[in-house]
Write a structure and sequence with these properties.
The chain contains 16 helices and no strands. The protein is mostly helical and 383 residues long.
Length: 383
């Protein structure tokens, strides 16, 4: 039966107590599942579970981040509610997974942002940045802000290149540092040696599973959505989002090389590589998040952690708005609307960078590390 702590109202429990209650419940479920083993062919969680006889906090955190929340185990489980064992692996592992984001956050005093990183807070941050940029440009030269700009260097007439690099470079470096420190804390806590990250086989196996979303298919049946029959729609939208983000990052890298190595200023022609990569990436992070948002709003709430739904939605919407404003900037860049559109796009990009280490973005990072560890564990187990 479920632990008494989980029956308490959320408001009556501190974050530490709630986390411990989630770990206790996850430990109970893994003990039941390790005795049954009916779901061992569905994903990586259950084979990894079978390599253990006891489940410490680090083990449970590792298993929770290894879970892709496909929901197949809940559909197949003979002990799922209303059975008295009340086994609901997707929901409980989602709670442990969300707890881990706040537990390993760096610096530690930023942990409450995971509870407050809702859509409204994120939008206010992004729109505030956009308003600042519009105000800055308007005070400098209103005619430039509201006039049609074209040709190389048009963007930098709105916001000087050096100022843009200083603002966004500082935000990006801070986010990279915060993400890296969180990853170090996560890796140490799950008890895996650093040598695993230098193992080519483990890295290659983890990279393959990350790139293909191997474990989001419910063991081949598909992901449990709002339909009675599982399908691969969530997997497709995840792919669009992931590869769209990667293409946008590649476009930024190529644009930086174009600027500093070739001396070419943005905006570039439609046919140029940074624009092609950015356009494809923008489509990906527009269509993908739209699909994920629709799937999340329709999905059975028993398959996830509804208490942290705001954090999930905020991340998806920020990606979506970044993609939409980027595509709008591509279309409007030679019109009088370019200045305001550029400010909006930069606002959402900066807002995304600043909230990246303190929101749902971390689930992809921790899951990637968990998949690398699983590849190493599987190799050790087979040998």
């Amino acid at each position: 039966m479920q632990s008494d702590e989980l029956k308490m109202p959320a408001a009556a429990m501190s974050a530490t107590e709630a986390r411990q209650a989630h770990l206790d419940e996850a430990g109970r479920l893994m003990t039941v599942c390790n005795s049954c083993r009916y779901c061992e062919g569905l994903c990586a969680v259950f084979p990894a579970m079978e390599m253990r006889r006891a489940f410490g906090a680090g083990d449970l955190t590792y298993l929770a981040n290894l879970c892709h929340n496909c929901g197949a185990c809940n559909s197949d489980c003979q002990f799922a509610p209303p059975h008295e064992f009340a086994v609901n692996v997707p929901k409980v592992l989602a709670e442990v997974r969300n707890d881990s984001y706040a537990r390993y956050v760096w610096p530690g005093f930023m942990a409450p942002l995971f509870a407050r990183n809702g859509l409204v807070v994120t939008l206010i941050a992004a729109l505030s940045v956009a308003a600042f940029l519009v105000g800055f440009a308007a005070m400098t030269d209103p005619a430039v802000l509201f006039g049609a700009q074209s040709g190389p260097g048009a963007f930098y007439r709105i916001l000087p290149h050096n100022a843009m690099v200083a603002i966004f470079g500082a935000a990006f470096l801070w986010s990279v540092l915060a993400v890296a420190m969180s990853c170090i804390r996560f890796w140490r806590d799950i008890g895996e040696p650093g040598s695993t990250l230098r193992d080519p086989q483990a890295l290659a196996g983890g990279a393959h599973d990350i790139a293909t979303l191997r474990y989001l298919d419910g063991g081949g049946m598909g992901c449990a959505n709002d339909a009675e029959v599982p399908d691969d729609t969530r997997r497709m939208y995840h792919h669009l989002t992931f590869y769209g983000f990667a293409l946008c990052f590649a476009a930024t890298v190529v644009g930086t090389l174009w600027h500093y190595l070739l001396g070419r200023d943005a905006p570039y022609p439609w046919w140029d590589l940074p624009v092609v990569l950015g356009t494809l990436g923008g489509i990906g992070i527009t269509v993908g998040p739209l699909g994920l948002l629709a799937a999340k709003l329709r999905r059975d709430p028993q398959l996830g952690d509804v208490s942290r739904k705001g954090m999930d939605v905020a991340f998806i919407v920020m990606l979506l708005l970044t993609g939409v404003t980027g595509l709008a900037l591509l279309v409007l860049r030679a019109t009088p609307l370019m200045g305001v559109t550029l400010a909006l796009h930069l606002g959402f990009v900066l807002g995304f960078f600043l909230t990246m280490p303190y929101g749902k973005f971390m689930h992809g990072i921790f899951r990637g590390l968990a998949l690398v560890r699983y590849a190493a564990e599987r190799k050790r187990h087979l040998s």
